[in-house]
């Protein structure tokens, strides 16, 4: 098993050392997208900032786009409003195969090789028969990825690999990487991530919560529910979010266990339509209060990049912990509530 990983690593290190100098110029993109897409619009958009690069109508199950690019850009192909493929738009004729892997130009081949090797490492990780082997596979891949980013800090594939890892970095770790490779800081997603990491650090455990107000039929503020002499579990969620829905039974379990002992629960629906949130609340039979239609207001403030994101705030408004799910959530709440005696009014 380990030998397979090392073989994958050797290939990855080899491709990371390839000379793939960015080049602009005329490009074409051809892709088989299926007859069900006939008549639908296909777009190529900049992966980093969403800018439109080109568009065409799907015919005979295929799409063909062409244009001129100043320098290579990581991009998405969107068909009929649905995300389809990821590629690098650069000079040359680019082909997207049935496995959605791009080919035909140097950076697209580099991108496809990395993705294939990433998949191979994932299979090796899944097949590993011990925690120690899984840890070794994970650590080896991080080392390989670091070298890949270092060797490709001047092209969009290096940006893609860095971005895929950077969400797990601390604010300090991300700053260190950008100090070594400042060109990555020019990407919007990286710049936004830097700001998000700083906001997350400023609202980490041990800091006082930051209030926000959501306007609507009646304005609601986080301060309406927290810092009122009780512990409050705040759940940032959305109706379309499968992991959010799967976490609800855990929150219900804790609410039933500790609700009479001074634990409050508050839901904050983010990145969602109000009507969809209301419907989900009814379907899931959520008994706690909700702040609806919060969109990106709280997630921007707290530097939240994914949901569910659950936060425990103490009676004085200090954040005890955040980012817990499942057993880790149970552990934090149970340990906290075991030492808590509500103040009699």
Automatic annotation (TrEMBL):
SUPFAM superfamilies cross-referenced by the UniProt entry: Thioredoxin-like (SSF52833)
One Gene Ontology cellular component: cell envelope
Location relative to the cell: Cell envelope
Domain spans labelled Thioredoxin: 203-342
One Pfam short name: AhpC-TSA
InterPro entries: AhpC/TSA, DUF4369, Thioredoxin-like_sf, Thioredoxin_CS, Thioredoxin_domain, Thioredoxin_ResA/DsbE_sf
CDD domains: TlpA_like_family
Signal peptide bounds: 1-23
A GO biological process held by the record: cytochrome complex assembly
Alphabetical keyword list: Cytochrome c-type biogenesis, Disulfide bond, Redox-active center, Signal
Single GO MF annotation: antioxidant activity
Protein's recorded name: AhpC/TSA family protein
